[in-house]
Predict the structure.
Amino acid sequence: MHAESEIRDPLILGSKNYRQITDDIIAPIEGKAAKGWYVLLTICALTFLWGIGCLAYTIGVGIGAWGSNNAADWAWDITNFVWWIGIGHAGTLISAVLLLFRQKWRMAINRSAEAMTIFAVLCAAIFVTLHTGRPWLDYMLFPLPNQFGSLWPNFNSPLLWDVFAVSTYATVSIVFWYIGLIPDFAMIRDRVIKPWQKKFYGLLSFGWGGSARHWSRFEEVSLVLAGLSTPLVFSVHSIVSFDFATSVVPGWHTTIFPPYFVSGAVFSGFAMVLTLMLVVRKIYKLEAYLTIKHIEYMNIVIIVTGSIVGVAYLTELFIAWYSGVEWEQYAFLNRATGPLAWSYWAMMTCNVISPQLFWFKKIRTSIVATFLLSIVVNIGMWFERFVIIVPTLLRTFLPSTWNTYTPSFIDIGIFIGTIGMFGTFFLLFSRYFPVIAQAELKTILKQSGEAQKKESANHSHAHSHAH
Amino acid sequence: MATKQIIHGVFGDEVPMMEACKKLRASGIRVKDVFSPFPVHGLDPVIGVPRTRLAICAFIYGITGTSLATLMMWYMQIHDWPADIGGKPNWAYYFNIPAFIPITFESTVFCAAHGMALTYLLRCWLVPGAKAKNPDPRTTDDKFLVYLELNDEQAKKADAILKDNGAEEVNYKGTLYIEPAY
């Protein structure tokens, strides 16, 4: 076993042993839910229902129910789609990229971050499904044999690349998540007493037993899936950005889009993980596992990706000026000073200025500040997508097509509804599924547990004195 | 008829368990399996678990995905109906390769990931409704179980080794009757 330096902060606080980790992770499943859980679930479920109502209305009357018009033919639908897909990226980044880099702190957060990814991608799917206008014909997006003289989709189109990218991303994320869940479901199966729970978790655990051969395969699968998911994280949002970048619309037609979208996605995803984690750690009393150090690590990722996003904004402005292309210059001038300038400045404040506050250690280790700033970042990232899409489309080449944009009641309803859906799913997940990958967490207990670290430090000191 | 005893050596920690496995192997006793709540690193060579070939499977599934995507796009876009969209004709596959890269990549990842995951689940027989494979439910919580199937003479030796190396329990779980080989 590798010993870890005493200088590194422990990742599991207090003196825990394997049994206590089991007890702490299973507590929300075995025990009664807190009152706060029911209150939150009711709120989320009601907003979800409201969203379903607006969704049904849209399907009934068509997307004329939205605020989109001939100029802004993409508006809240694609804004929300890109926003949700972006949020999903943190989950895969944490579970895949941080696994390859052997970052142990990911083990406390990867399970719920992956769950968040899946729920976010489901929310995103609602918007792409609806924005085609006739969702019952969406099967035409896939290359299926058909009666139209075998009319195939256009494989040269980034919109079709997106269909493949998002469906691969969604399904691979679900598989990665579930394979990690199997040993933890087995732990729950072996612990619970109520017959329905025994049956339920027995079914979900697929008969896992933890044999050495199975663990060896489990680790190989996790590693290879991580290796496959890593380019996937970068490709998905790059391809989403191609939807814009390969067009001829000024303000969209830029080569900076792929890296800018990917870092923006990770930025907003980590912010969402923080928002959720801070709630989960409070409701389920997981302070020993989701420590201030974890929060600090995530805030550092937010500073890095937030600064990349900030540099990208400034680069875009510089290149617009430097290129000498007046259309490009106007596009940016319009974003910053046009009729929707307030959204541009909201984006600038939330995304460029607010994450810089995390340079102060006091702020990045404060729970309240982190919670508030994580929400600010997500608001900012929503505005980023809005600014890219709506003000740009309202002012294209032909001034006679210029228009204004206001979202309709239905637009707002569906968006709020997806937040409700996300919340509902996440709350159910956190109550009935193991929120922390306990099997993985047990592997780092001896190196990163607080008591274990102290003990091994004392031991090595005593050892050196003896010599 | 030969008989073998089923022995469970239960440990509360992975370090003595590993030590016991090393000693068992050194005295020529085969450790049939070890059940643990988490992957114990370094255990595989000690008890003789060969390296899994799942990664090779993933590679094969991956190149299958690459080929399928290539074949699909060639057939649909170039061969069957070469549509000319926006003045961009689809004359030849090599002409369109840049535009085909994203889907080729996604298909590679899709097939590699799902193929490997499915192989893993089937190889370990992890399917809905499968019976729990651990012989003692405590092994998913905090116990490490060394599973042995030994004849009486070896069993006596193993019992001593397990107990000397800190096994909390040594449980005898019945007898296996082995049909003699003809």
User: Anything to note?
Assistant: The mean pLDDT of chain A is 89. Chain A has 16 helices and no strands. Chain A touches chain B through 68 residues (CB under 8 Å).
